[in-house]
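Hello support,

Our group uses your service weekly, and this is the first time we've seen a run hang past the timeout. The protein is NitT/TauT family transport system permease protein. I'm not sure whether the cause is the sequence or the server load. Input pasted verbatim:
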Amino acid sequence: MSLLHSALPVLAALAILLLAWQFGAALLGIPTYILPRPAEIVATAITKSGLLGDALYVTLVEAVAGFLIGAAAGILLAVVMMLAPPVEAVLMPVAIVVNAVPSVAFVPLVLLWFGLGMASKIAIGALAVVFVVLLNLLAGLKRPEAEAINLMRSFGAGPVGILFRLRFPAAMPQLVTGLRVGLARSTIAVIVAEMMGAYSGIGQVIYQATGQVDYLTVWAAVFVAMLGSLALYGVLVAIDRKLVWWR
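Update from on-call engineer: The timeout came from a worker crash unrelated to the input. Re-ran successfully.
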């Protein structure tokens, strides 16, 4: 129930925005090809629900697969760096440099290496996630104060015990933040990769509709992609409430 209550203000704001968009565009006489009305977008999405539904399924599978792989790799790297500081000294500059470059900049290379199928989209999604999860989790693992660490050592806890009994619980809020950002980045990277080269997916629908000057389909695809992203984000928020219940 608390999750529903927290979502009500967002839904109310979204409803107000859509109403203002609908009536504002009509009153100002804005042409459909510049800014279609929400009702027209929804009608197009319903008319082409089969095409958009299949495309959304492909995109979400690619985004979620890339997210899971990237998140797992980021968590593993953070644990290794925490337990072996020399590894952090070697790999952290590389992670910072790669993270500073937008992941979509690597799309042409990933398409060249993995082809136009799902593998390239999953790879670019994982690349978009791994470093943001790594950096957030590593910062969280370093949060505990020296006094707490020394206290656990006095009770005989080793580095691994301290990691999982002290550092990981303290790092959970930052880990979840990294996962939230990573999920958004994975979805964006996958859609951009689909627009640049794919057999299917929401990004490819947007690309083809743009070439055909079918802007209502473009808007409908964006609308459907937004709903899919919100659904994934809602699942992640629910998981957040279970993992970081003390907030």
